[in-house]
Amino acid sequence: MPTKAEQSEATRAALVGAAEALFTERGFADTATEAVVHAAGVTRGALYHHFTDKADLFRAVYERLEQRLIAHVTEAVGGLTEPLAVLQRGAEAFLDACLEPAVRRIVLLEGPTVLGWETWRQIDMEYGLGMVTAVLDVAMQTGAIRPAPVEALAHVLLGGLNEGAMLMASSPDPDAARERTGEALRLVIDGLAAQRPPR
User: Fold this and answer.
1) Which of 147, 180, 189, 199 has the fewest Cβ atoms within 10 Å of its own Cβ atom?
2) Neighbouring C-beta atoms of residue 182, cutoff 10 Å
3) Among candidates 56, 20, 52, 55, which has minimal Cα distance to 36?
4) Per-residue b/e over 118-154, b at no fewer than 16 CB within 10 Å?
5) What CA–CA distance (Å, rounded) separates 186 from 172?
6) How many angstroms separate the CA atoms of 4 and 167, rounded?
7) Taking the mean position of all CA atoms in its chain, how far away is CA 22?
8) Spatial distance between the Cα atoms of 54 and 172, rounded to a whole number of angstroms
9) What is the pLDDT of residue 71?
């Protein structure tokens, strides 16, 4: 028999999973809490035991997607040791993940509106900034990229990634926008490389 804590966690996971599917398909505004409860197979009371309101549930879905994004990027760069390759592969993996319908709609298109720009940015920075900063720090220490203020550069690079992802999400042809964004990003990352002496 599962413990109370396990049952509670299973109920919460069911609600978040059901909400993710419905928010992706219908959007936040057109998803009724009754539909989430029904899809999750739980009571309305269970929903309000775990979440204060629909926006709180949306935030939980959003954060779970951010965690999946980070896991996807981490897996993509696994085994790489060259810092520029890590930056490039990680950026490409992030952009690829942003083509997924749930990420596109919930994280990119609706996240800033539903959560509010400040909260959206705070969560995004919490998940992505540390990873970008760490890679840039190693890249500078090993001489792979030119010296620069690490924190500022991490913000600039993450901002560029987010803007590229937004461009893809709002494009009528996300795949074509993905190609253009990837090309632009490669130019930016290549431009960070330390100057090598002429042969």
Assistant:
1) 199
2) 17
3) 20
4) eebeebbbeebeebbbebbeebbeeebbeeeebeebb
5) 23
6) 44
7) 19
8) 29
9) 95
* DSSP sequence for 28-84: STT--HHHHHHHHT--HHHHHHH-SSHHHHHHHHHHHHHHHHHHHHHHHHTT---HH
For residue 145, list its beta bridge partners.
Answer: 193
Cα–Cα distance for residue pair 49/121, rounded to 1 Å: 27
Looking at the DSSP bridge assignments, the partners of residue 193 are 145
Q: What is the pLDDT along the chain (199 residues), one digit of tens a residue?
A: 889 888 999 999 999 999 999 999 999 999 999 999 999 999 999 999 999 999 999 999 999 999 999 999 999 999 999 999 999 999 999 999 999 999 999 999 999 999 999 999 899 888 889 889 999 999 999 999 999 999 999 999 999 999 999 999 999 999 999 999 999 999 999 999 986 544 5
SS3 26: helix
Nearest-10 Cα torsion for 37, 119, 161, 133: -120
